[in-house]
Every structure is written in C-alpha cells, then in structure tokens.
User: Fold glutathione transferase from Nyssa sinensis.
Amino acid sequence: MEEEQKVKLLGAWFSPFVYRVRLALALKGIQYEYIEQDLTNKSSLLLHSNPIHKRVPVLIHGGKPIPESLIIIDYLDSIWKDNPILPEDPYQRAMAHSWAKFIEEKFTEVIRRALMLEGEQQEKEVLQAKDALEILEGELKGKKFFGGDTMGFLDIVMSWITFWLGVIEEVAGFQVFDPIEYPRLKKWKDSFLELPLIKGSFPPRDSLLPYFSKIRRCGLASAAKK
Amino acid sequence: MEEEQKVKLLGAWFSPFVYRVRLALALKGIQYEYIEQDLTNKSSLLLHSNPIHKRVPVLIHGGKPIPESLIIIDYLDSIWKDNPILPEDPYQRAMAHSWAKFIEEKFTEVIRRALMLEGEQQEKEVLQAKDALEILEGELKGKKFFGGDTMGFLDIVMSWITFWLGVIEEVAGFQVFDPIEYPRLKKWKDSFLELPLIKGSFPPRDSLLPYFSKIRRCGLASAAKK
Assistant:
C-alpha cells in the first residue's frame, strides 16, 4: 500500500467506541495498522492526532487524523464504497443519523453516567435508559437488524450493548436489558452475536470486569469529593 | 411545486436551532412553508412528525419528516446541490462534523446549562464555555469564516452565538464572549452579521429577553425542587 494511503487506528483494548470502528473496518475488509494507546500516559501521536479530545478512537488515513467513532465510520463509508454501512438514500441516511444521535444521548451517555453513580441517582438513570430501550424495541418491529436484513450503521452503533452492557451491569449492580422485557432486542442481540464477523471479536470479559470496576470506583470517588 | 416535493418546516420563533435550518434553506434558495408550533400545546402534526423528541425543528420533505437541525442541514445539502454548505471532500466533511460535535457538546450544551444555574455552579459552566471559545478562536486563525472565505456549515452551527448568546448572557447575568479576549471570533461575528442574508433575520430581541427569562426562572425553580 502507498504510504500516503495507509490506514492506522489508534485504539484501546477495552473501548466499545474503538470496537465500533474495528467492526466497520472488518466489514469493509480494509487493511489497517492497529496502534494500542496507553490512556494513562498519552503518546505524542495521540496528542498530536486528537489535540482537542485527546481520546480514542482516532483513524489516520494518509497521514490525516479523524476523531470520533461515528464520524470515522461515515468517513470510511464515503471512501470505501463496497459493503455500504449507511443507506444510500438521503432520507434513510438522515434517519440513521437521527437514531444514532438518539442512541448516544438517550442510552450510551445515560449508561455511562449510571456506571459512576449509586442509589437513587443511579436508579433515575436506569429508568431513563429503559425508556430508550423501549423505543428501540419498537424500532426493531419486523426487522432482523436495525437497517433491515443485514448489519448496518445502527447495529454498529448499538454493538456495545451485546457485550459491554452486561459487563457494566455486573460491575455497577443494575439491570436495564431484561431479555423478557425486550424480546425483539434479545433476538437482535442473538442474531448479531451469531455473525461470523462478531465471533471472538470482543476483548476478554475477565479483563474488562476489573477495568470497568476501576472506572466506577474512580467515578464514585470523584463524585464524593464534589 | 408538486405536492410530493413540498418542503415544510415546523419551527418556533425563539429557537436558535430552527434559525439554523431557516438560514440553510435561505442559503439554498429553497421555497418552503413555515409552520409555527406552540410548544406549550403541541400539535398532532408535531407529535406525529417527531414522536420521539417532540421538538422543533422538523423538516418535512415530500411528506417525510426529519428532526434535528444539523441532520436536516446535512439532508438539505445532499438533495439540493447548489450553494454547497458542507465541504465536498470526505476528509474536510468529517472534520466539519467533528467540529460541529465539539461546538454542540462543549459550548451549546454548556451555555444551555449555565442559563438554568446560578452562583458557583454557573461559574463552572462559564469557565468551561470559555475554554471552548478559546479553542474556536484558534480554529479561526487566518480565516474569515469557519469554512474559509464564505459562510458554511460551522458558521451556521455557530450562528446563535452572534445573537442569542448576548440575550442569554443578559438574562442569566454572566459573560463568556468578551470581544477583547476573542478578537478573531469578534471579527467573525462582525463579518457574519454583515451578510445580506443575516440582516433583519433574527427574532425581536425585546421579545426574546422575557422569553429566555421565563426559561431561566422555570429551570431554577425545577432545580430547587430536586
């Protein structure tokens, strides 16, 4: 591959956001160099590539860095046309972006907060997350995946729910995803986990548990100081 | 115009998010029907068009509703190719989306919170907003508008800062945008306000002031109850 077209990914093994990008790259069959980052001791490559947010994932394509998992996936899809991830139709595309925004704001961010809270405050976030799942359950009516018959953009956005959510629930002592309450989401999760691309693609659960426990402890300690 | 291609916009006169869409429509020269919504008594058209968020703006094109100001602008730009708003180059496009996300999360949302707070809590948000302005000031180096020589996507995202921010500052009793501290942003604001498209396009300040005062009072009262 020409140096100027090389694809690199700055990531961290535990990150569900980096996982999204790896999934998109695998789906597209794009060759890339994966560069693990130590977020406790940030490399000059990371600081230089993402000076504002200083976080992963960052995709570097032909020397140019792009931050944010969903923006990276949009970019990959606009450069590599095979195996499209987003719908081609502008209306369907807009709706996919709108749902992605909903998932991030009303579910992903809510669970991120719940991980760092306890008691009544956590319970409030859990209820809000369940409201979002209820709406997503409705959206799956008559569909195997969020995009239809095959895995697409929203399935990638939601991918962390099939694996990381369980880890977070265990660590933080709550349950939002009760398979009996959300039978369509349960079926979606099963179909997703059966995809050959997904099998064996998650980081080891035994390592994630202590990692997210530590994040929770730090979050609780920092909240207590306020 | 054929019925199925008609463009309608559900809006509210005071909303800076609706303003963004009106600006994009004006820039494109798109004819549309504007339908003012009473958000204290939501119409069935709004509830049907945006069942999840139940808020404005909603664009309806050929009967199909699209929510969220920035998603609407992306959509308009992909359907009406004249007077492009986003850069055509995929990398520049990704970076525009990344900056928009930065502005929304690190400035727009922060000011929204500051409007509803007072004392130390407000001061914390104000400092965070100033950090974001400092970064945006750097991004304007050598440029008239965020996109370069002409108004584009990020200028529309930032448009509320040229008018609504002053109203919010007055109502909530803080100042984040000191023109001496941010000379490039000051110059950008002046250039923006001089555009023929912008002149006379804002809602009356005398009506916005009591409106945002009321929002602040409600926000403070609801925080006090918690």
